[in-house]
Design a protein that fits this description.
Layout lengths: L6 E4 L11 H9 L4 E8 L5 E3 L6 H4 L20 H11 L2 E6 L6 H15 L8 E4 L2 H10 L4 E6 L6 H7 L4 E5 L5 H9 L3 E5 L4 H10 L3 E4 L2 H11 L4
Helix pairs in contact: 1-3, 3-4, 4-5, 8-9
This protein binds SN-glycerol-3-phosphate and magnesium ion.
Length: 236
């Protein structure tokens, strides 16, 4: 059973700390988040690591592709997925694990991620939610570890969104807030899916999306959005 909170810290608390780092997860916790989102891809030698881009350049300054870099040669501060999970265990944070494969590694990245989850996920934490833009990764996750709930990530409303969600056995859709309108939100909810929205840092926008039916706001600034949603609950 998916216990999704109404606010998830994007890449930790990316508004306040370097994204997808242990510091960012700690910052998310300090700012009140109960869950974070992180991105998993694999190093050249197949180790699942936490990194958003295909290149290390933007976040670490090292001008090299992840797919060309062994785990042992990663710049300092890039956590392995196992290190990130251990940190979440210490902090007591749940996790939306985005499977974000380097090109051609859709299946291998999903396999590596779920294998690590099976080995390392702390039993005292709520079960993670696996998400991906890649249907192939979600299909492998379903095959290898059906016990983990899945969310299909969509950057826009595509005609076959429902068929794709059904095909990978998703229970949730995580969609771009820039492309979510009231009609699509209504259709998603009517079809029985949980609805996550990324990446929302504006309090007014967050409240509007919740009014539209969003169950979960994925944000770089969890403190801001937690305050916004708490303020929107009328007093008893
Ligand atoms: O999982 C939500 C969001 O992280 C998806 O987009 O590019 O920020 O990984 P991106
Ligand atoms: Mg992501």
């Amino acid at each position: 059973m998916l216990q999704l909170p109404n606010v998830v810290g994007h890449r930790g608390a990316a508004a306040y700390a370097p994204e997808n780092t242990l510091d960012s997860f700690r910052e998310a916790k300090r700012r009140g988040a109960t869950w974070i989102e992180l991105d998993v891809k694999t190093s050249r030698d197949g180790v699942p690591i936490v990194m958003h881009d295909e290149s290390l350049k933007r976040t670490t300054g090292v001008d090299r592709l992840v797919i060309d870099t062994d785990r042992a040669d990663l710049p300092a501060g890039v956590p392995t997925f196992a290190e990130a999970i251990a940190c979440l265990g210490e902090l007591g944070l749940g996790c939306n694990v985005e499977i974000k494969p380097c090109p051609g590694r859709e299946a291998a990245t999903a396999r590596a991620a779920v294998e690590t989850l099976r080995q390392c996920w702390p039993p005292h934490l709520p079960a993670p939610l696996l998400s991906s833009f890649k249907d192939a990764s979600l299909a492998i996750a379903r095959q290898e570890a059906p016990e983990y709930a899945r969310a299909l990530l969509l950057g826009e409303q595509v005609p076959d969104w429902l068929a794709r969600a059904q095909a990978v056995g998703a229970v949730c859709l995580n969609v771009s807030g820039r492309k979510l309108g009231a009609l699509w939100a209504h259709d998603i909810k009517r079809a029985g899916y949980r609805l996550g929205v990324y990446t929302i840092n504006d309090p007014v926008e967050a409240r509007a999306l919740v009014a539209m039916g969003a169950d979960c706001i994925i944000t770089d600034a969890p403190d801001v959005i937690l305050d916004a949603l708490a303020a929107s609950i009328p007093p008893p």
